[in-house]
Amino acid sequence: METRSTAAFDPPTINPYPLFLNPIFSFLLPLSQMAVETPLLDPPPPATRRQQCGLILSSLLIFSVGLLTFSGHRSQQSPPISPGADHHRTPPARGVREGVSAKSSPGFVGEEEEERVSYNWTNAMFTWQRTAYHFQPQRNWMNGCAGPLYHKGWYHIFYQYNPDSAVWGNITWGHAVSRDLIHWLLLPLALVPDRWYDVNGVWTGSATRHPDGNIYMLYTGSTGNLTQVQNLAHPADPSDPLLLNWVKNPANPVLLPPPGIGPKDFRDPTTAWLGPDGLWRVAIGSRMEKLGITLVYKTRDFLSYELLDHYLHSVPGTGMWECVDFFPVAVNGTKGLDTSAAGEGIKHVLKASLDDTKLDHFAVGTYDPVEDLWTPDDPKNDGTELEVVKLQTIPRTVVLDGRTGADLLQWPVEEIESLRLRSYCFEDVLVGPGSVVPLHIGSATQNSIPLQLDIMAEFEVELISGKKTDEENSCDGGAAERSSLGPFGILALADASLSELTSVFFRPVQTSADAVTTYFCTDQTRFSKFTFDPL
């Protein structure tokens, strides 16, 4: 059987507009220079949308996408070591005590103390590890995004940040703005832990824009005795498009842990939504022993609050819920909704990060704004699992999957098209069963800078039998495990001999005479950087 395929390849280019700081270069400037001396200009106009091409496959195949690997680029950054070099033996390598991740060189650690050596690492040696397109600060520790909002032509993000070192601690709110969600400008710190109610950290929070134009920023503060309380901050000058200065409300803290809730189990308020009674609702993550719960408060002025007598949702055995989120999505449509939207044609998504497992979960359900009750559409499935990462992602659109009514579809914002350098479109490529077809796209680097590819492909499979098969319904077995309908996909990060590669593939399984279940899989067993971790 032969297969015809069509594929599009679009490598984004490195940001050609240095006034909008690309993180790969941001380490060259101190924070004060980036925040003050970088001019604020309108971003470049978005590039023309690329031509849409699909990839249609109807038989068994795995095909190669060029010979792309970044391992060569990384190896070139390693400092040359000669056997006779006079390496430093003191002081020992920097580590957590000095505020950075341990950077000792295992190759120069001897069994005896006097044989142990350290290597004089420099920041320049690690610049290749910085992301090219995702937002990150110049240096040091960063974790969760907080309080995103749009104000007077600028997108704002705040993030938990340690300005002093590369380990968690001294959590402060960093601040960055963008015109297009792609090119970000670092601004001075927004909130610092300088009051008794947040002296141990300015933790996660959310922004709510009131119809009167005011912005209410609720955030969790950790007190001197590590009690978690909720605090309120406002922009010092709401007319400032960059919202450079923030003021903490003198009434702080505005919320304390309620009776029955542990002092360390009360954090991460959501963006508020307006109920039919004219009062705002705010959800906060917590737990009762091992029962994970979402608390909901009502407020009129964001200073005085009333706790509802029931949970928005709870799941036994899940432990502490943190970074809770609650938002509406349209049943039919791709437009975002106001946080307060409710009623016919609207579902609500509840998302929580489980502190015990460090995994995110979300579920789709129906919200009754009068009774303040949320019911999951599938009570037997209390959440789809997501992995947690410590990097700000490319901003994405989130819509409800109209086909399933239960899943969320996420896609990078269309502004990312402004990073495109060029595109390749392959059509009428014949792919025989079990064959590997290289698609030549030129060099993997541009001016010694590795290019990153986005690959858009569509697959269409014809049912070839009229009955259910007995094939395994999973990604087990990797790309080498053959089935009646696959696998098919791409070989990425491949070398010329195909001894080094990562398979990204689809595995359709015919579950009935007229239905197919498709699994989306990766196989890294032939990727040299892959390390199996059973945890």
Describe this entry's structure for a reader:
The structure is a single chain. The chain contains two helices and 30 strands. β13 (280-288) and β14 form a beta hairpin. Strands 11, 12, 13, 14, 15 and 16 form a six-stranded antiparallel sheet that branches. Strands 17, 18, 19, 20 and 21 form a five-stranded antiparallel sheet that branches. It has a four-stranded mixed sheet with strand order 2-28-29-30, with no helix packed on it. It has helices at residues 31-37, 71-77, and strands at residues 3-10, 63-64, 142-151, 154-161, 172-178, 184-191, 202-209, 215-222, 228-235, 246-248, 266-267, 273-274, 280-288, 291-299, 305-307, 313-315, 321-330, 346-354, 359-368, 373-376, 384-387, 396-400, 408-412, 424-431, 445-446, 449-450, 454-456, 488-492, 502-512, 515-523. Its EC number is 3.2.1.26. Residues 134-377 form the Glycosyl hydrolase family 32 N-terminal domain. This is beta-fructofuranosidase.
Number of strands: 30
Mean pLDDT: 75
Shape: globular
User: Using only CA atoms, what is the Rg?
Assistant: 26 Å
Residues in helices, as a percent range: under 10%
The total count of helices amounts to 2
Largest sheet properties: 6 strands, antiparallel
Regions with little confidence, pLDDT below 50 for 5+ residues: 1-111, 531-535
Amount of beta strand: 25-35%
Note the gap between the termini.
41 Å
> What structural class do you assign from the helix and strand content?
mainly beta
GO molecular function: beta-fructofuranosidase activity
EC number: 3.2.1.26
Organism: Linum tenue
Keywords: Glycosidase, Hydrolase, Vacuole, Zymogen
